[in-house]
Amino acid sequence: DGGITQSPKYLFRKEGQNVTLSCEQNLNHDAMYWYRQDPGQGLRLIYYSQIVNDFQKGDIAEGYSVSREKKESFPLTVTSAQKNPTAFYLCASNNLRGETQYFGPGTRLLVL
Amino acid sequence: SQQGEEDPQALSIQEGENATMNCSYKTSINNLQWYRQNSGRGLVHLILIRSNEREKHSGRLRVTLDTSKKSSSLLITASRAADTASYFCAFNTGANSKLTFGKGITLSVRP
Asked: How far is residue A33's CA from residue A51's CA, in Å, rounded to a whole number?
């Protein structure tokens, strides 16, 4: 059953703590993306990767970091430098032709 | 960034009515797509229309694209309460694989 998974569903961060959100896909897609969605807002691109071991900053990369060591996996770390991390985080993937993006179910990050 | 802009921001209709949502953009595009998001969930792809196409249908969905006006419309016919969701347009410029998303339209279908 092909798809894209994210974990955990909910994540709580303490002040000063780094947390990592997981994203895995078995669609054999080259490109993967991380978006942030605030209540009632659209999607803002944090980072994206079009090939293993390479990634580019999106519109709001400050306070976040990513890695792409495997084609299937694109974890996002929310660092302590991100002062307002409370949001809904969505991971997606697609082919390099920029066609349909497949989304994971999302991770809701809350600050304690 | 060159965000798409949807119109209206919110739409409330009665079950059985048609819902029309519009999207405008500012750059040349390779394709334009519409997505749906139920509350607290990920986005689901609805339909893709390429820059050389003018109209496309999928079930109760009809999407049009006018590249001269840099705009697209999504029509949902015979709406159902289950169509209640947020709808986003997104476009690809062809420069890379990224999509640029609009801010979304909240559709409420009253039973």
From this structure: 11
User: Quick one: which of B47, B49, B41 has its CA closest to B84?
Assistant: B41
Q: Which of B41, B92, B102 sits opposite A42 (nearest CB)?
A: B102
Give residue-wise pLDDT tens across range A54-84. Answer: 999 999 999 999 999 999 999 999 999 998 9
Identify residue A108 by its one-letter amino acid code. R
B32-54 residue pLDDT tens: 999 999 999 999 999 999 999 99
Which residues have CB under 8 Å from A89's CB, separation 6+? A6, A21, A34, A35, A36, A37, A46, A76, A106, A107, A108, A109
Residue of A5, A43, A74 to mutate when probing chain B, most B C-beta within 10 A: A43
